[in-house]
Amino acid sequence: MKARGNVERRMYPCCVYVCLMLPCLGKYMALGSDLHLNVARGTQELSRIQSGLRRINKPAVKSIQSPDGDIIDCVLKLNQPALDHPKLKNKHIQESPSLRPTRTNPSEKHTRTHKFIQSWSQNGHCPIDTIPIRRSKESEIRHMNGSLKIYGQKSSGGVKPHSPAVPGPPTLNRHEHAISYLESGPYYGAKATINLWKPGVQMPNEFSLSQIWVLGGSFEDDLNSVEAGWQVSPEIYGDTNPRFFTYWTTSNEIVIGGSISPVSSSNGLQYDITILIWKDPNTGHWWLEYGDYIVGYWPSYLFTHLALYATTLEWGGEVVNSEPDGRHTTTRMGSGVFAESGYGRASYFKNLGFVDSSNALRSPSDLQTFATYPDCYDILGASNSDWGAFFYYGGPGLNPLCR
C-alpha cells in the first residue's frame, strides 16, 4: 500500500547489493590497483547494506521460523519500521477503529470456499503488544539491483480505466490490468472476497497480483492510493508463493508479505481471502481488515486527497509484462485462464462492496469493467443472490491472439 503525489511511499525492508559484487571480483584479479578500488567499493556497499538491515530489521522479542523459509520477527508495536517515517514520529498508535461499517447484507453467503492460513503461524504466534514482521534478507536485494531505495516499492498506483490500449509495440515493463471499478465518488471504503491462486511468473522482474485499490486525486497529478491483496513477486520475495501485501500494521496475527496457503486448484477446492478497507468516520484513518483480523491503518495525515475521501475504487488483477524474447510474457493473471471458464477454473472476486458517507457497506449496482489487452487477460462481471456483485478475470498471457 502506498500514497503517491506529495506523500512518501513506504519501502519494504531491504539489503543486498554486495551479493552482486562479490561473484564479479574474479575478473579483476589481473587489474592491479583496479582490484583494490573494487574491493573498497564492495566493502562500502556491504557496510551500507548491513546498516540498512539493522535499521529495517528491528530487534525481536521472539523469532519464528516459517515452513516456507521466512523468519518472522515479533517486534514491539512501538518499534515497528513504519514509525520511522518522519510524519509518524511520536504519534499515538490507535489500537482499533472507533467504528466499523454497518453491513447492509448480513446474510452474505460464502459458499464452497475454505479457510486460509499464513504459513508462519503453523510454527508459533507473536506475544501480545508485538507485531509479526517478515525479516528482510540480503539475497532479496540481489533481485533489486542492490537498491535499498526501491526495494518493496510498487510502481503502479491504480489504473486509469479509460486509457486506450496503445497500438504497436508495447513499452518495456508494461503494467497490464483486468479490473472492475467505480468512479466519481466520494467513497469511504471498499471490500471484496478474492480467490487465491499461485500464478506462474515468467521473469524475476515481473509480478502477478490481485488486489483492491482505493484512490483519491488525479491520475495525472498527486494521486493517493491505499492498496491490499495478494501478489506473486520473485523480485521482492525470492520465491513464487502468493503473499498478502500492504504496508502498515497493528495486528499480532498477520504478517505483511507473509505467504498464504493453501491455494485453489483447477476443478478442485477453492480458497479465498476477504479484505475490507474503510475510513474511520471519527479519526479519518483508513483501516484494513483481513478475514477476521484488524491488520492496521493508514493515518489520514499521510495523505492529501485521501484525507477526505476516495474518488475511485478498483478491484482486479495486474501483471508486469517485460516482453522476454520480444514476445508477450507468459506470466499468468489469477488462475491463468480466461474469465469465461467460470467457477473452479477462472479466478474471481465476489461480494464486492463500497462504504458510503453514512459508514454503510453497500453492494454496487453500477460497476464497470476494463481490460488493457483482453486477448491476454480479460474480465467478466455479473451479480446474483449468493455472491452479490462479482466477476471472473485473468488469463495466460502469451497465446495465439496475444503476442
Write structural notes for this entry:
With 403 residues, the protein is mainly beta. 9% of the residues lie in helices and 32% in strands. It has helices spanning 18-21, 33-56, 139-142, 234-237, and strands at 62-65, 71-76, 102-103, 113-114, 117-118, 130-134, 174-187, 189-195, 208-216, 224-232, 243-245, 260-261, 270-279, 286-290, 293-298, 310-321, 347-355, 360-362, 368-371, 378-384, 388-394. The longest helix is centred in the first third of the chain and has 24 residues, at 33-56. The radius of gyration is 21 Å and the shape is globular.
**What is the chain-wise order of helices and strands?**
HHEEEEEEHEEEEHEEEEEEEEEEE
The main β sheet shows up as: 10 strands, mixed
Q: Helical region count?
A: 4
The span between the termini is 31 Å
Structural class estimated from helices and strands = mainly beta
Structural key phrases:
mainly beta, 403 residues, 6-stranded antiparallel sheet, single chain, 4 helices
Question: Helices and strands in order, then pairings?
Answer:
Elements: H1 18-21, H2 33-56, E1 62-65, E2 71-76, E3 102-103, E4 113-114, E5 117-118, E6 130-134, H3 139-142, E7 174-187, E8 189-195, E9 208-216, E10 224-232, H4 234-237, E11 243-245, E12 260-261, E13 270-279, E14 286-290, E15 293-298, E16 310-321, E17 347-355, E18 360-362, E19 368-371, E20 378-384, E21 388-394
Parallel strand pairs: 3-18, 4-13
Antiparallel strand pairs: 1-2, 2-6, 5-12, 7-16, 7-19, 8-13, 8-17, 9-10, 9-16, 10-11, 13-14, 14-15, 17-18, 17-21, 20-21
